[in-house]
Amino acid sequence: MLPAYGLRAHPLAHGSAGEPRGASFDREVVATKAFWPAITIGLLIQGYKGLSDYLRTRRWNLRRFVETGGMPSSHAASVSALSTSVGMLSGFGSLLFGVTLYFSLVVMYDAAGLRRAAGRQAMILNRLIAEHFKHPEREAQKLMELLGHTPLEVLVGALLGVATALLWHWVF
Q: Structure pTM?
């Protein structure tokens, strides 16, 4: 019970007085179990983007390892892996899964909508500056154009995330 409100805590939040030694560690492992497939697929996809950029250009662009945009969407992969893992661990009818799924859909919508539109605007502004100003400011940096994703990039990322979570929980 949470004393101030008379509410019961989630069973993973607090142990009982008679819990065996090491049970606290077990709760922490279970509580972060959904995190690992999500972070793993996100890092793998970003690594893939950096490596594929090197293979295409034959020069290293370390920014590509952390930049947004491109195929597939690491954001979509991460949040879909997280939602799938939470569903598998807590149940697909649980409140936690519903909240995770909602925020995952917001992230994917943002990647394909708002950030993509901002990238298009940056491309147009860069072109306007290059074409209409003979001497643009030397300190002015070109705006980053690769911000968002196409719906296909988001879909492929989401499918990779779900597949990763299913494989992760099957193996581990």
A: 0.70
